[in-house]
TrEMBL record, chain B:
The lineage of its organism: Eukaryota, Metazoa, Chordata, Craniata, Vertebrata. PANTHER family: EXOSOME COMPLEX COMPONENT RRP40, PNAS-3 RELATED. The gene is EXOSC3. Residues 90-137 form the K Homology domain. SUPFAM superfamilies: Eukaryotic type KH-domain (KH-domain type I), Nucleic acid-binding proteins. This is Exosome complex component RRP40.
Amino acid sequence: MKETPLSNCERRFLLRAIEERKRLDGRQSYDYRNVRVSFGADYGCCVVELGRTRVLGQVSCELVSPKLNRATEGILFFNLELSPMASPSFEPGRQSELLVKLNRLLERCLRNSKCIDTESLCVVAGVKVWQIRVDLHLLNHDGNIIDAASIAAIVALCHFRRPDVSVQGEEVTLYTPEERDPVPLSIHHMPICVSFAFFQQGTYLLVDPSEREERVMDGLLVIAMNKHREICTIQSSGGIMLLKEQVLRCSKITGVKVAEITELIQKALENDRKVRKEGGKFGFAESIPNQKISAFKMERAPVDTDDVEEQAEEIITKADPPLDVFAEPILRLPGTAQIGEGIENSWGDLEESEREEEEESNSDDVTASEDQKMEVEEINVVSETKKDDPIVLSDSEEEGVVILEPEKTSKKTRTHTNAKQENSSSKKAFNKKRKKKRATR
Amino acid sequence: QYVPVKGDHVIGIVTIKAGDIFKVDVGGSEQASLSYLAFEGATKRNRPNVQVGDLIYGQFIVANKDMEPEMVCIDSSGRANGMGVIGHEGLLFKVSLGLIRKLLTPNCEIIQELGQLYPFEIVFGMNGRIWVKAKTIQQTLIVANILEACEHMTAEQRMQAFAKLSER
């Protein structure tokens, strides 16, 4: 079945959005989507989700006779399959160009970089070696198959355990998992691919392109790196001309991203190992939640509204008026008894909190504010409320009193992406303080 | 998967321009055909300005399982009534069919609340496609994201989200 064509309207919109540094799902240019790794019941089986792109990886092994010209090395075999389940444009049975390209890239990345020690896979030289086979299936295509597949491959290989063998002279004994614990593969390093999509002849660059972005991109650059900052593979396709600085910048970004992803993988592997050791439940039945049509997918909603808020924040921080709007409520406040200097959300601003302390006269909060000063130094959100002031009002009051406005706005624009977290944690802190105050009274 | 129904208004993408007719992809199993005369004010001399890849808002006049569906951009009295080629700016995205029906009920709260945020143009296709255009790309993206998320939010979560946005 043919996939839906990309309309001119969409193409134009996407390119214009990229020129303004906006992406459809609210990410920044260098942001990755959420990576989630879950393991199956068998060793060597894992599912990696990169946003909505899902890849299933399975590793299996078998004893075979080695290749003639490499008698002491084991054999590694990679296979990536694109099923029609992933996207209507993938037809079964046909070897498309994309498939060949992806397979070749994966092979180069994992085999040529010698991340697996093939010598250790040898059982009897020239007679019996282990053949490790990595099968990757693309379950859903939402862009950036290469990254997801490379992560799935390396995670599956790290997770896999092969049966133990012992050699006595000419006799080879293969132990079942019950007799002896299976042995993990010896992996030197974990190469991970990071993709960069280029637009407008190399002017704009996006990391981790989604499916729509892939359709309008000019070219793709894939860099495979491990956490020791060694480049394992570089591939540039699409025929765009890249400048040296661009490639260097991409490799720096890759270094950062690979470090993050490697850490995530280690944590996931560690968790799985712990669960298995403690005898808890493991496997897909536990890790992949039930998705029903009738149930609300709570997980997704918060992410989307977060993005929306961030985007809205961007509008606001660009425009100046909101500060004036905040100024209005100041006038109302002096009329009430609660002269709260209390600020809900100071955006982690140290100067503000120090000034708040000077102006506060309520003994109730003196000790509390000292605690909070320490908190602020940890860059946690400060909440120093005296009474039940709504957030907006106290915020504005602070602005009205102190001539810190220019700095404050600049701080705001810089930290706008963290606004949501600070807001939500400020609310939590606010509630805690409320309860604390009620308790002390 | 969308199944064409006679009388349904849908958003389609022009894929092939073949002499007298256009082939339009509507997200169903078959592409619909659209004659160039089925536009308001179109005559043999005065052809409508439609290119491959353009977005079309039209309705089905023939849609059964035996024949290829046919659509037109003109209603029974010969007037366009909002149908035709959709403008060049704006964003097209897909949502589920159920959400479209919910949004098209009269007095839908979501649309009214959105309308109070900022002005925008919106076209709903019964095949699950929505076209949005607001003043800036930022606002367009916000509207699109909210509509996609509305499917999974309860009414209270929606109120909260709108409240946060309108505070700014």
